[in-house]
Amino acid sequence: MEKQKCPEVRFKGFTDVWKQFKLGELCSEFRSGEFIKAENIASLGKYPVYGGNGLRGYTDTYNHNGEFALIGRQGALCGNMQFSCGKAFFTEHAVAVKANNSNETSFLYYLCGIMNLGQYSGQSAQPGLAVGNLIEIETLVPYKT
């Protein structure tokens, strides 16, 4: 069983078996963005605006700066993944995910992408993902020594 958690191909700095963590334990940030009025989103602007289904447009303000994996939180496509680098505005329909020191944000982007997070959506008229549920999902990841 332990052999299944230790792939044959190893990368520098990763020597041990993969370990099980909750998604929230891998992140320094894992939270929904903020509300922005539709009138403040335009087809041109200084900063991209990401919502639950990706790029919505542009605005003149930002609420995040750096590398972030984004999880679509609301709608039929909830669970879809986007990646943002630099200054951007994330709406309340997107979950901003930033890795802590034990991992890489780009790795979390790909990991969440293959986890089919949409399967964890609430069963209501408007499908949606709750941050409180997402951070509790367990997964195996390489452990950096």
From TrEMBL:
Limits of the Type I restriction modification DNA specificity domain: 18-138
GO biological process assignments: DNA restriction-modification system
Pfam family name, one: Methylase_S
Molecular functions (GO terms): DNA binding; endonuclease activity
Keyword annotations of the record: DNA-binding, Endonuclease, Hydrolase, Nuclease, Restriction system
SUPFAM superfamilies: DNA methylase specificity domain (SSF116734)
Family: Belongs to the type-I restriction system S methylase family.
The protein, known as: Restriction endonuclease subunit S
